[in-house]
């Protein structure tokens, strides 16, 4: 008797063949669509809560009139120049950090390998602060400096950790993050701003500096970069199988790694230039997205989770303590730290290393 | 799946392979018999896995060339090569949370591109690969929850879904018990019989290799020391040369292929003891 014939088939499978497999493969897609739909609705809800609620509550009809260009004394300035740009910046920055984190985590096959943990976001932050404090840069110049700083850190930690594997890269990156955080503090202390708000922006991230120019610049950049996440996700699905298997399946592994690193670095650097390195958003989004998506990674779900974390964090940061508006990074940092500890403990216990 | 009338030839011409440092495989030439199953055996660190990686272009040759139907594989586009030649590396690891049908579906990657998305033909190939390896019933499960034997069959299903004319397997029976080892090698033999796929397998178990091989390749220190039909090649002298092991080679009672029975020191000790005990006082 042939082994091929004794294969145990579920009832009907042999008859249906490809159609049966198609059904199996569709199930996770359907689930992902549901998850994305529900998350999308939640993000939209959080977005409007950020704009309409808080110390100054705006009604929906008033908000629509404001969007239509009407002038309402008091509300016009607070909504159009303050709350709306902040919410939009939070939405865009969160989505961008979420995708950046999920790319690095999937590519290096380790949840600790997100750009905020391995120093790439702090590289962007340090370069942005240096550009402002030392060279007096503004606007696009700050974004360019942030991208340059993030790329330099990415190249540097890859070079320092060469031949030491993924764990080595993460350890080198954690060292780089601590060093760069010190560099940001040093640069800010040298500047005569002495402004606590500025310090918070570049150390843990805040939506307070939002304005229409920053929102427009980030939106334009993401309009170019986020569509690349589609083909990027295809390459990630290959790389997730390991270098040899991926190469055997026809993936150009070195090229895919280079392009994905570049995409991830830019997606971490651009929102950092606009809102600072909002703590742990990149780190948290990927694992939460996987958990929601039944264990399967998805960049789209990670983007929605990232946006949701920033918007929910901002809502809490602005409203938690009456008359005190905290930077969003304080809240996301407080959420992320216990998760980081839990991850370190559980990964050491299963002996997979940091 | 009809038998291929023009099986694919894969050959290495005078290749030197290695990582940093001294080469592991030096000036090796080998022609895999087209449409046949070749088994590559040898002691640990003799370069057999390195050779397989070189044949699959996972490692580029420092000198020499690997030819697929006469064409240098290093000049072929990555995805075009992956449509012709599949490799299952040693002990691959599945991403966390991936389902069996999803993993096997990734075997279809080289058949997809910017403009060619997933089609019904891909579904059919995945269904065929799952049923050939007896894993259809696992299609909706996640790979994490499978046993070692099931997992290995799923990986082989992934390699089969790639539908290549050449298939290279590195230690496909690692971590499997004897029953599952036999099952996996049976699946590969049947695939070869049905499709005429050219197969090369690196295997530790000499006796299973001798039983399943059309062509046996024995390696030592990065060189091929003998190749041919197992009956012609596998002798006590070869086992001594390649493994440094004294043995008796007898016909396998089931198939008549060579069966290597190692002598070992314990048998010698027991033999000596028995003869002493039996000796007259």
UniProtKB/TrEMBL annotation, chain B:
InterPro entries assigned: AAA+_ATPase, ABC_transporter-like_ATP-bd, ABC_transporter-like_CS, P-loop_NTPase, Siderophore_ABC-ATPase
One matching Pfam family: ABC_tran
Keywords on record: ATP-binding, Cell membrane, Ion transport, Iron, Iron transport, Membrane, Nucleotide-binding, Transport
Organism (species): Arthrobacter silviterrae
Annotated protein name in UniProt: ABC transporter ATP-binding protein
Main location: membrane
One annotated GO molecular function: ATP binding
Lineage top rank: taxon: Bacteria
Membrane topology summary: Peripheral membrane protein
Domain ABC transporter: start-end pairs: 10-246
Subcellular location per the Swiss-Prot or TrEMBL entry: Cell membrane
């Amino acid at each position: 008797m042939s082994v091929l014939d004794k294969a145990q088939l579920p009832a009907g499978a042999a008859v249906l063949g490809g159609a049966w497999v198609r059904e199996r493969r569709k199930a996770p897609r359907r689930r992902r669509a549901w998850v994305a739909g529900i998350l999308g609705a939640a993000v939209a809800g959080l977005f409007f809560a950020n704009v309409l609620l808080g110390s100054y509550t705006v009604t929906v009809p008033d908000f629509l009139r404001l969007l239509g260009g009407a002038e309402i004394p008091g509300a016009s300035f607070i909504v159009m120049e303050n709350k709306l740009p902040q919410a939009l910046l939070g939405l865009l920055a969160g989505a961008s950090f979420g995708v950046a984190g999920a790319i690095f985590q999937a590519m290096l096959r380790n949840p600790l390998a997100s750009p905020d943990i391995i120093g790439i976001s702090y590289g962007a932050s340090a370069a942005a602060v240096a550009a402002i404090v030392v060279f007096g840069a503004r606007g696009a110049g700050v974004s360019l400096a942030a991208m340059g700083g993030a790329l330099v850190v990415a190249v540097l930690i890859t070079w320092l950790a060469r031949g030491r594997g993924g764990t080595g890269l993460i350890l080198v990156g954690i060292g780089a993050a601590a060093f760069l955080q010190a560099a940001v503090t040093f640069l800010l202390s040298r500047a005569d701003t002495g402004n606590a708000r500025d310090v918070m922006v570049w150390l843990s991230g805040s939506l307070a500096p939002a304005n229409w120019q920053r929102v427009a610049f980030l939106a334009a950049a993401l309009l170019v970069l986020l569509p690349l996440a589609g083909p990027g996700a295809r390459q990630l699905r290959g790389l997730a199988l390991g270098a040899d298997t991926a190469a055997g399946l026809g993936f150009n592994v070195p090229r895919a790694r280079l392009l994905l690193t570049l995409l991830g670095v830019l997606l971490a650097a651009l929102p950092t230039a606009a809102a600072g390195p909002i703590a742990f958003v990149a780190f948290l989004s990927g694992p939460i997205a996987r958990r929601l998506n039944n264990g399967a990674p998805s960049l789209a779900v990670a983007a929605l989770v990232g946006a949701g974390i920033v918007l929910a964090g901002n809502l809490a940061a602005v409203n938690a303590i009456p008359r005190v508006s905290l930077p969003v990074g304080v809240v996301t940092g407080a959420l992320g730290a216990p998760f980081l500890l839990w991850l370190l403990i559980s990964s050491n216990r299963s002996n997979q290393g940091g | 799946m009809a038998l291929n009338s023009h099986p694919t030839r894969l050959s290495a011409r005078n290749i030197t392979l290695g990582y940093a440092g001294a080469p592991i495989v030096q000036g090796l030439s080998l022609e895999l018999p087209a449409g046949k199953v070749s088994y590559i055996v040898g002691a640990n660190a003799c370069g057999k896995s390195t050779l397989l990686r070189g044949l699959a272009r996972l490692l580029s040759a420092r000198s020499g060339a690997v030819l697929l139907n006469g064409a240098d594989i290093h000049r072929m586009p990555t995805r075009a090569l992956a449509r012709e030649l599949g490799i299952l590396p040693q002990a691959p690891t599945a991403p966390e949370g991936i389902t069996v049908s999803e993993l096997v579906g990734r075997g279809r990657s080289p058949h997809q591109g910017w403009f060619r998305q997933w089609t019904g033909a891909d579904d059919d190939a995945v269904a065929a690969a799952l049923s050939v390896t007896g894993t259809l019933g696992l299609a909706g499960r996640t790979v994490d929850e499978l046993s070692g034997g099931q997992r290995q069959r799923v990986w082989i299903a992934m390699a089969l879904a790639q539908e290549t004319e050449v298939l290279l397997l590195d230690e496909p029976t690692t971590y499997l018990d004897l029953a599952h080892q036999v099952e996996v090698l049976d699946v590969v033999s049947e695939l070869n019989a049905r499709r005429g796929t050219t197969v090369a397998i690196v295997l530790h178990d000499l006796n299973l290799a001798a039983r399943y091989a059309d062509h046996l390749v024995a390696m030592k220190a990065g060189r091929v020391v003998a190749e041919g039909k197992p009956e012609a090649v596998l002798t006590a002298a070869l086992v001594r040369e390649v493994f440094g092991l004294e043995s008796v080679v007898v016909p396998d009672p089931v198939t008549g292929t060579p069966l290597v029975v190692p002598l070992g020191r314990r048998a010698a000790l027991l033999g000596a003891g028995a003869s002493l005990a039996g000796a007259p006082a």
